[in-house]
Amino acid sequence: DTGVSQNPRHKITKRGQNVTFRCDPISEHNRLYWYRQTLGQGPEFLTYFQNEAQLEKSRLLSDRFSAERPKGSFSTLEIQRTEQGDSAMYLCASSPASLGGWTSTDTQYFGPGTRLTVL
Amino acid sequence: TQLLEQSPQFLSIQEGENLTVYCNSSSVFSSLQWYRQEPGEGPVLLVTVVTGGEVKKLKRLTFQFGDARKDSSLHITAAQPGDTGLYLCAGGRVTSGSRLTFGEGTQLTVNP
Predict the structure, then answer these.
(1) Which strands, in side-by-side order, build the sheet including B5-7?
(2) Which residue, A68, A91, B17, B35, could crosslink A35 as a Cys pair with Cβ 3.0–4.6 Å?
(3) Could you tell me which of B65, B74, B101 has the C-alpha nearest to residue A42?
(4) B-side interface with A, Cβ within 8 Å?
C-alpha cells in the first residue's frame, strides 16, 4: 500500500506528558500537511511543509506544538505538556504539488490519523 | 468562524432513496474537494472540482460546483448502506496557500 501512513494509530497519555506522532507521506509528494479533528467537526489546518521547509502555521498551533520534516520525507508532530483539550484525531495529508507553487488542482490525500486521548 | 457551511448536518434515510448534501460559502474557492470519512479513519477523497458550473459523476454520486465557485452539492442516487459515512467538503484558495478549509460534515446513515 503506497498511501499516507501514520503511527501510532492510537495514543493514550496522561496530562502533562509529551507525545510524538509520525507521518509518512506518499512517496514523491513534496507537500505534507497536519490537521486536527475533534468530534463532530471537520478537520482544522495546523501546518504544512514544502519539502523540509515549514511554510505556514495556524494560530491553533500553540508553542507546545512543534512539527518537523527534517529530510523532506516523513514528518513528526510533537505536543509537549499535553492538556485534555489536545484530545483529538491528528490527521496528516500529502500532495503532489509542484515546486512552482500551489495550484487549484493540488489534491490532498489523507492518512488514517492518530487518535490522541489525554486523561 | 466556519467558512464552509454544510447541510444537513445529519441525514438518515432508507436504502434506495435519493439525497442531496449542500456546501455553501460567502467566499470564492479556487477548488472544492469532497471526502468521505468513516469512524476512526482519515478522509478519503471522492472528487475535486475546480471550474465554476462543473459537474462530475462517480457512479451513483454527482458533484456540482456552483457557477460562482462559492457552493457545491453532492447528490446520491439510490443510496446503499455502504454509502453510510461522514461527507466533508473542503475548499482551497490560492490566496490561502495550501490550507484546506473544511465544512463540519454531513453524517449520512443509510438503513437497509
Answers:
(1) B5-7, B19-24, B71-76, B61-65, B55-58
(2) A91
(3) B101
(4) 4, 30-31, 33, 35, 40-45, 48, 50, 88, 90, 92, 94, 97-105
User: How many beta-carbon pairs below 8 A join chains A and B?
Assistant: 79
Tell me the per-residue pLDDT of B47-77, one tens digit each, with 9 for 90 and over.
999 889 999 999 999 999 999 999 999 999 9
Alpha helices in B7-105 (DSSP H): none
Name the residue of chain B whose CA is nearest to A115's CA. B40
- Residue carrying C-alpha cell 444537513: B8
User: For residue B62, what are the CA distances in angstroms to A16, A64, B54, B55?
Assistant: 47, 42, 11, 7
- Grid cell 434506495 is found at B16
Rounded Cα–Cα distance for residues B106 and A81 (Å): 34
The tally of CA atoms less than 13 A away on the side-chain side of residue B42 is 26
Length of chain B: 112
B94 contacts on A by Cβ (under 8 Å):
102-104
Distances (CA, A) of A59 to A15, B11, B12, B48, B70: 22, 33, 36, 27, 25
Amino acid at B91: G
C-alpha cell at B92: 482551497
Question: Rounded to whole angstroms, how far apart are CA atoms A54 and A16?
Answer: 26
| pLDDT above 60 for A68 | yes
Q: If DSSP codes are grouped into helix, strand and coil, which group holds residue B94? A: helix
Distance CA A11, CA A8 (A): 7
Give residue A105's pLDDT. Answer: 53
